[in-house]
Specification:
This protein is of the alpha/beta class and 331 residues long. The protein contains 11 helices and 11 strands. The strands form 3 sheets. A 7-stranded parallel sheet has the order 1-2-3-4-5-6-8. Strands 7-9 form a two-stranded antiparallel ribbon. Strands 10-11 form a two-stranded antiparallel sheet. The two termini are 34 Å apart. The relative contact order is 0.17.
C-alpha cells in the first residue's frame, strides 16, 4: 500500500503511485496536428495567450518522427527525474484531435509501441467529432489514456477576451461526452486574468468539479513573446498578480475543488528567455510552498469547501483523497 502524500491536495505524484505503483514523468511530443483557431475554421492567429514556441520543449520539433522525439527527450528527463519509474507520452502542441481520425490512431499505435505507460492527448473542447471519440475510446479500452481539454475558464467574457473561440458550455459538453465513453479527462484552467472577477475564478473550481473531471492543471496567466497578448502588453502594460497574491488565489481555488480531482500543476512555466510578465522574484518551489503554507494557516485543504455528497460546493470542511502537482505545458 502506497504511503499517503502529506500535501494538502491530491497530487500527480500520489495519483501515479496509486495507479502505476511508481512516479512517472511526461515526454512532450508533437504528433503533427494543427489548430482550428489558427487555420480559419474557428479563428486566425490562435488564442490571445498562445505561443507554441514558448511552451514547446526543444525535443518536440514538428516533423520529426515520434520515436526520434522520444529518444531526444529521454536522456535529459531521466536525469531530471531519477526516481521516476516510467513515463507518459504527452501529445501537447496544438489540437491533437483536429484532423483525420486515422492520423491519431497511427500516432497512438506508435505511442503504445514506444514503451510509454500511457498517453495524454491535449485538445480543444470543440474538436471532438464522434470518429475521434471512437479512436480515443478504443485506445483507452486497453491502455492508460487521458484527454486534456483547454477549458481555461468557466466565465464567458474571459473566454471571449482570450479569443478561445468556444464557450464554457462547449467544455462541459465535451467532458460529458468523453466521460460517457469511459475516458479520463483533465482540464487546463488559467487563474489571475484581468478579464474575470476573482470570485468567479475561485468558483470555477466548483463548476469544473461538477462535470466529473478527473484532473486539473492550474496555471497563472503569462505574457510570452510571440503571442498576441505580448503585443497588447507592449502597447499598454496591465497588472498581473505577484506570486503571493497568486498563491492566495490558487489556495482558494483548491478549497473549492472536489477532493477527487488530481491536481497536476499549480502554476505555469515557459522556455527560458520567452517570458515577458509576470517576472516573479520567487522560484517555483517557493510558490508551491506558499500555497501549501496558506492552506495550512487557514486549516483547510483541497475540497474543504466542497461537499461531494451533494455535488455542490459548501462552506463546511470535508476531505477525500489528497496530494501535489507537476509542472507541464499548456494546450
Amino acid at each position: 500500500m502506497q504511503a499517503r502524500d502529506p500535501l494538502p491536495y491530491f497530487s500527480a505524484r500520489q495519483f501515479a503511485n496509486e495507479r502505476f505503483g511508481r512516479a512517472l514523468f511526461r515526454v512532450v511530443v508533437d504528433a503533427g496536428f494543427s489548430c482550428p483557431n489558427r487555420d480559419g475554421s474557428r479563428g486566425t492567429g490562435g488564442c490571445l495567450f498562445c505561443s507554441i514556441a514558448g511552451f514547446r520543449p526543444p525535443s518536440s520539433e514538428p516533423g520529426r518522427p515520434l520515436a526520434e522525439q522520444i529518444a531526444r527527450a529521454l536522456p535529459l528527463l531521466r536525469r531530471r527525474y531519477p526516481r521516476a519509474g516510467g513515463y507518459l507520452l504527452y501529445f501537447q502542441p496544438y489540437t491533437n484531435t483536429y484532423g483525420p481520425p486515422e492520423k491519431l490512431a497511427r500516432a497512438l499505435a506508435e505511442a503504445r509501441a514506444s514503451g510509454a505507460e500511457g498517453v495524454v492527448v491535449a485538445t480543444r473542447p470543440d474538436a471532438l467529432p464522434e470518429e475521434m471519440l471512437d479512436v480515443l475510446a478504443s485506445f483507452a479500452a486497453t491502455s492508460f489514456l487521458q484527454v486534456e481539454l483547454g477549458v481555461q475558464s468557466t466565465h464567458e467574457p474571459a473566454l471571449a477576451a482570450m479569443r478561445r473561440g468556444h464557450r464554457w458550455s462547449d467544455s462541459a459538453r465535451a467532458i460529458e461526452r468523453l466521460k460517457r465513453r469511459g475516458i479520463r479527462v483533465g482540464a487546463h484552467m488559467i487563474l489571475g486574468t484581468p478579464w474575470e472577477p476573482l470570485e468567479s475564478q475561485v468558483e470555477g473550481a466548483a463548476r469544473i468539479s461538477l462535470t466529473g473531471i478527473d484532473a486539473v492543471k492550474i496555471h497563472h496567466l503569462q505574457v510570452v513573446s510571440g503571442s498576441a497578448l505580448a503585443l497588447e502588453f507592449e502597447r499598454e502594460a496591465f497588472d498581473l498578480p505577484d506570486w503571493r497574491a497568486y498563491a492566495n488565489l490558487a489556495a482558494s481555488f483548491l478549497e473549492r475543488l472536489s477532493p477527487r480531482v488530481v491536481v497536476e500543476r499549480l502554476f505555469a512555466s515557459t522556455r527560458p528567455g520567452t517570458l515577458l510578465a509576470p517576472k516573479w522574484d520567487a522560484p517555483p518551489g517557493r510558490v508551491r510552498d506558499e500555497i501549501v503554507r496558506i492552506l495550512q494557516e487557514r486549516g483547510t485543504r483541497q475540497g474543504s469547501r466542497w461537499r461531494a455528497a451533494e455535488g455542490e460546493p459548501d462552506g463546511s470542511s470535508s476531505r477525500g483523497d489528497e496530494t501535489d502537482g507537476g509542472a507541464h505545458e499548456t494546450p
